[in-house]
Automatic annotation (TrEMBL):
Protein name (database record): UPF0173 metal-dependent hydrolase GCM10007971_00890
Family designation: Belongs to the UPF0173 family.
Metallo-beta-lactamase domain location: 7-192
Domain of life from the UniProt record: Bacteria
Length: 226
C-alpha cells in the first residue's frame, strides 16, 4: 500500500487494486498537485463537511463513479447531487472491497456552504481509520486534542497517522505532538497547515520533535510505501 500527501488534508491511498482519496480539496488549494479533471478514484472518504475537505468530491465522483463514504448527514446530502454514497457514523466500521473503514471521534464542526451561501448541517465530524493489506492508517481529521486518541493508539497498530498541526481551527503544534505520542504510529505526518495565513506552521520543525515513532513532513506529492 502507498499513501501520499497532496496539500492541506488531502491524502491519496493506493492499495494495489484500488485508489482512494481522503478529503480531496483540490480546486482553491494552491498547494495541491492533483488535477480534479484527471485524478482517479475508486472511493472518496470524507472526515467532515467543511468545504476545504469536501473539496472536489462531487466533480470527481461524477466523473469516476467513485463511492463516497462519509458521515451520515453529509452522505445523505451528497447523495441528492447524483453520486453514490455510503453513510457511516462515529464508532461504526465496514468492510468494503477496497478495505475497512472505521470512523472515530473528532472535536470540530461540520457544515457545508452551498453555492448560494446556504449552510447545510453535515453531522458530526470524524477521523478515519483505514485498513487494507493488513496495514492501518489513521487520518485524524480536523480536531482538538482529546484523550481518546490514546485509546485509538492502544487499540490499533497504526502505520501512518495524518495529524493536523495548523492551530486556530484545529490543534496546534504543541497539542499535535501529544497526539502523535498517544496515537503511537510508526510515522506521524503533519497536515492542515500553510493553506491559509492563519494556519502557517513549520512542519519540518514539528516533525523533528516527534518522540514516538518517526515524524515526517511529506512534501506535496511525496509518498510512503507500507
Amino acid at each position: 500500500m502507498k499513501v501520499s500527501y497532496h496539500g492541506h488534508s488531502v491524502v491519496k491511498v493506493e492499495t494495489g487494486k484500488h485508489t482512494l482519496l481522503i478529503d480531496p480539496f483540490i480546486t482553491g488549494n494552491e498547494a495541491c498537485d492533483l488535477d480534479p479533471n484527471t485524478v482517479e478514484a475508486d472511493a472518496i472518504l470524507l472526515t467532515h463537511a467543511h468545504n476545504d475537505h469536501v473539496g472536489d468530491t462531487l466533480e470527481i465522483a461524477k466523473r469516476t463513479g467513485a463511492l463516497v463514504v462519509a458521515p451520515n448527514e453529509l452522505a445523505v446530502y451528497l447523495g441528492t447531487k447524483g453520486i453514490e454514497t455510503h453513510p457511516m457514523h462515529i464508532g461504526g466500521s465496514r468492510e468494503f472491497d477496497f478495505g475497512k473503514v472505521k470512523f472515530t471521534q473528532a472535536f470540530h464542526g461540520s457544515s457545508y456552504t452551498d453555492d448560494d451561501g446556504s449552510i447545510i448541517y453535515g453531522g458530526m465530524p470524524g477521523g478515519i481509520l483505514f485498513t487494507a493489506n493488513g496495514k492501518t492508517i489513521y487520518h485524524v481529521g480536523d480536531t482538538a486534542l482529546f484523550t481518546d486518541l490514546k485509546m485509538y493508539g492502544e487499540m490499533n497498530d497504526i502505520e501512518v497517522a495524518f495529524i493536523p498541526i495548523g492551530d486556530n481551527f484545529t490543534m496546534g503544534p504543541e497539542d499535535a505532538l501529544i497526539a502523535a505520542d498517544w496515537i503511537n504510529a510508526k510515522v506521524s505526518v503533519p497536515v492542515h497547515y500553510n493553506t491559509f495565513p492563519v494556519i502557517e506552521q513549520d512542519a519540518d520543525a514539528w516533525a523533528s520533535k516527534v518522540k514516538t515513532g518517526e515524524g515526517r513532513a511529506l512534501k506535496v506529492g511525496e509518498s510512503i510505501e507500507l
